[in-house]
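Quick one: structure tokens for this chain, please?
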Amino acid sequence: MVLKDRIQLSHGAGGKLMDELIKDVIIRNISNRKVGGGVGLDEFDDGATIPYGGVQIAVSSDGHIVDPPFFPGGDIGKLAVCGAINDLAMIGARPIALTDTMVVEEGYPVEDLSRIVRSMSDTADHVGAAIVHGDFKVMPKGKLDKIVISTTGVGIVEAHPILDSGLRDGDVIIVTGPIGDHGIAIASLRSGLSFSTSVISDVAPLWDVMHVAISSGRVTAAKDPTRGGVAMALNEMAERSGVSIWVSEDDIPIRQEVVGACEMLGLDPLELTCEGRAVIGVGSENAEGVLEAIRKVPEGRGARIIGIVRGERPGYVIMETSAGGKRVINPPLGEPTPRIC
């Protein structure tokens, strides 16, 4: 697909268009893309690693522009900290520290800013990470919509980096809870939508989930299905690992309220953003043990095995439908709801 000469909203929506922009415009123009033998830009993963002495230091950056800043189940502060923590967790790193940059519109309520910062602190405390540095700027009224937060997380890889390219034939795919909650929670607040739901955002830090998974079995790959949802996460893992992923429609956990909202809006729940879920590949020899361990963690109580990895048809994600057929799950062009995270 040929890139246009102007940036479109779809270029930031987490799908194929964003991937193309990052690879063709951003990464191509950066010459030094990794440190030593660490994970860098070319791996196109959730984070990077820097070898230092006998350890691998992990780093990841995330920007957040969610609208509205406060939503059922969370706010932009919690979302921003979870974004950094979860990207570190997906590569097998224990979060230890974060920095943040806040850009706020002139006239923004001070009490709202205080609530957001307290939420950031509480979320970092949950995983034992410290917020150690930051920057703060104000834009003239009308030049920015409310607030933007960018976070960078620093962690320590506890065993070895877990990469999207690590899936192997026979591995089992686990999703750690019902999908699509965050996307529908935000969509229900947006102007012009004629429905409301009881669904709240799934936004949550995932280090505890990943820690027990790593401790309980052989984790081969992991990804948090943010922009582009589970559909994008599975496609990226299949493509980078050179395998196919076969999932069962009946095994994918989706709340009925999310299904109903998607039918009303013409959305695919597989493409909706999740902010507190992980898609994890594990060795088949102890998949049930890993699943049981994940379910003991509050953020993983709804975990289910949804599919398996095969060596045939590399790069494809195939769903066995409730009706008994099969269909290919294609990577979405982008997140259907803008400013979702």
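Residues 164-328 form a domain with the Phosphoribosyl-aminoimidazole Synthetase; Chain A, domain 2 fold (CATH 3.90.650.10).
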